[in-house]
Amino acid sequence: MTYEVADLPIAEADRLARQQVERHRQEMSRWRQIRAARVAQERRTRSVGEIAEAIGVTQQVVYELLREARTPPAGRPE
Fold this sequence. Notes:
By secondary structure, the protein is mostly helical. It has one domain. 69% of the residues lie in helices and 0% in strands. The protein is elongated.
């Protein structure tokens, strides 16, 4: 949603901007969990090196995603 914040009172413009930032953070977190789960699924049949090469990242990134896949999202019990 796009807002014309230039014409809004500063408090309202700031509130709307913070709302949008928070929505974006939540969406990014959701997609990171989806990505991590997919990498974990692929890890069952491929090595970390193969996955890293296939998606164009370092092995360290793959290990981070695998760790994240084992960690429940914030606010959700295991």
